[in-house]
């Protein structure tokens, strides 16, 4: 299958998020999306760009923190200067994606799709097919989300509840509601119904539709975004007045309740690499020890889990199952896959101790 | 109790052994005895010297590998030049201690005691009292070993089987036999009898008695040692002709069989820190995580075992019990106390891979 560029389609890439559960790989000065976490030789941001270019050509807009703009441009040198928008500060996903929508609306873009910079999608062609179908529905005025088929009862993701099929579209379905991250038992019930999919935060929509949906909930928010788009020099002045809210709460949930959202069931594998446990799942099988990096730096005897040798030092692991060892030049993490969520507690402790140099 | 110097007593300190089960702390260029493994701020060699000086004054002779002579002199700067004897190569303990005996015999020393440079004895006064009693027996011509009271059924040590008390001495007993490292069940039987003590390789004896006992088994060996003592410039020429054999096999076992050995029951705690498991036992209790080094470099959440932060980097450990984490500038070890013996396999693998720089 060869993907065709989708006419009038713009890809928006919000490149944010600290990824503290991937410390000490992910740092505030070099968050998750700037790293090669799959051993592909390309960072997550680069892979996201690689995946979107066949669909959008050079119609790509990256929204990132001011502190990361130079790094983003360094990793994506073919993007023009104005394709990387710097947020003065992190104000959650509605402000970031809304700003992109306003800028694209001003440029007369027909349809946009927002795809986080730090997700892993091994099959770009299936992904592209889902995006193409999402764009087709979005052109009709729908807010479209690509819903991922759940592979287990995850409590780490929000879910989309599907309703009736959308006539005239191969696989699109109406969205009944978005639901927040459930407990595992509730997630199990969701899976048993066959009606739920993971909400991966992939929204495809006409920029004007998105801003108008926002305006229904918060007219000032939408108006300020449009003001910034018309007068970009006012970004610094107006940005801090924007609410800090996720796009799910600001737009997707109320729009779903109003019957204005459809979902395309994505048939591709997807991962947001929330922590080292999911990274280990992504990289390997349960019996072996995955090495993310130079295997010749490792000496493994009776070990399983994941080892990340990133300091150039030799790493020897003996007799530990499901272990996580992440070796960087200034910090070392040793834990287990089961406790990988608690890595964020170390980051919090270091912050509290004033160790900004380490987080 | 203040210890008195023991007249005519010389302390011999064999400073050898690779300590590969303590890699990556212990290296071929910097073996175990050169390290501070107890957090006392003094290396094992320095602590050995500290322990022996009250007993022997300046009558101390260190026998070490030529490669380590400079490091030994650096750590023991008060020793005179000729107090540190360099072996041209490692030829096991009989050659090392036998050379010291020959040199001391030539100097007219009355009694010598041999104490390894890498043992830990927290109570120097009790140790000194045992040495004093051992010297008293050695003056009468006995080969005296200080036998350590076993605290568990160890399969890592050889044992001394005690016989009848030696008349005229407070606690000395005849030695029936030396036995090699037993299995744990056999060691349990030993302990149940109450007749066995650990052989810590501490021998106290008149130099002439030791060399004559050796001569009974291997006249050429003893003669060559005496030749070297008389003409030290021939050390390099003659050294490689000496047999590689432990003093236990060469002298202690046959002497015990001939009824010429007594033991002093040491009442002091003792450890030879064979691996990181025994180091963890030495340093801490079972529920906590011991840190050998700068605690401010560690972030520990739900961890027990031992962490050795020696690279200056921050070490975070989450949710692992009985773990061993040893962080050095060029190599990192992660294992468990139960698997600590296998560290030597990593060293063997690195040697095989030609990584002499790491071992």
Automatic annotation (TrEMBL), chains A, B:
Q: Name one GO molecular function term.
A: mannose-1-phosphate guanylyltransferase (GTP) activity
Q: What protein name applies here?
A: Mannose-1-phosphate guanylyltransferase
Tell me where in this chain the Nucleotidyl transferase domain is found. 11-281
Q: What class of enzyme is it?
A: transferase
PANTHER family per the UniProt record, alphabetical? MANNOSE-1-PHOSPHATE GUANYLYLTRANSFERASE
Q: What's the Enzyme Commission number for this chain?
A: 2.7.7.13
Per its UniProt entry, which superkingdom is the organism in? Bacteria
Q: Which GO terms describe its biological process?
A: GDP-mannose biosynthetic process
Q: Which residue spans traverse the membrane?
A: none
**Record's keyword terms, sorted:** Nucleotidyltransferase, Transferase
The residues covered by the MannoseP isomerase/GMP-like beta-helix domain are 303-350
Tell me which InterPro entries the record gives: ManC/GMP-like_b-helix, Mannose-6P_isomerase_type2, NTP_transferase_dom, Nucleotide-diphossugar_trans
């Amino acid at each position: 299958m060869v993907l065709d560029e989708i006419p009038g389609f713009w890809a928006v890439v919000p490149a944010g998020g600290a990824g503290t559960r991937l410390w000490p790989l992910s740092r505030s000065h070099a968050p998750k999306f700037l790293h090669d976490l799959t051993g592909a030789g390309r960072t997550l941001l680069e892979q996201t760009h690689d995946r979107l270019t066949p669909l959008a050509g050079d119609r790509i807009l990256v929204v990132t923190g001011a502190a990361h703009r130079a790094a983003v441009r360094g990793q994506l040198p073919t993007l023009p200067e104005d394709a990387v928008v710097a947020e003065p500060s992190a104000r959650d996903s509605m402000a970031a994606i809304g700003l992109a929508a306003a800028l694209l609306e001003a440029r007369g873009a027909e349809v946009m799709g927002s795809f986080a910079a730090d997700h892993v999608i091994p099959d770009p062609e299936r992904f592209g097919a889902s995006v193409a179908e999402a764009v087709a529905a979005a052109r009709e005025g729908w807010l479209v989300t690509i819903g991922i088929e759940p592979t287990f009862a995850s409590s780490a993701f929000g879910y989309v509840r599907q309703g009736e099929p959308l006539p005239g579209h191969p696989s699109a379905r109406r969205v009944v509601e978005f639901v927040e991250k459930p407990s595992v038992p509730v997630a199990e019930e969701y899976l048993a119904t066959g009606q739920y999919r993971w909400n991966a935060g992939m929204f495809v929509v006409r920029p004007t539709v998105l801003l108008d949906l926002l305006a229904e909930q918060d007219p000032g928010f939408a108006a300020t975004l449009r003001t910034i788009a018309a007068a970009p020099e006012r970004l610094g002045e107006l940005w801090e007045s924007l609410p800090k809210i996720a796009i799910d709460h600001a737009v997707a949930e109320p729009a779903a309740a109003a019957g204005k959202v459809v979902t395309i069931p994505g048939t591709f594998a997807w991962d947001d690499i929330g922590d080292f446990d999911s990274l280990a799942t992504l990289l390997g099988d349960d019996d072996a020890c995955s090495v993310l990096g130079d295997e010749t730096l490792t000496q493994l005897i009776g070990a399983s889990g994941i080892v990340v040798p990133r300091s150039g030092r030799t790493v020897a692991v003996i007799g530990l199952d499901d272990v996580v060892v992440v070796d960087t030049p200034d910090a070392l993490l040793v834990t287990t896959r089961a406790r990988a969520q608690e890595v964020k507690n170390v980051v919090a402790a270091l912050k509290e101790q004033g160790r900004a140099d380490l987080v």
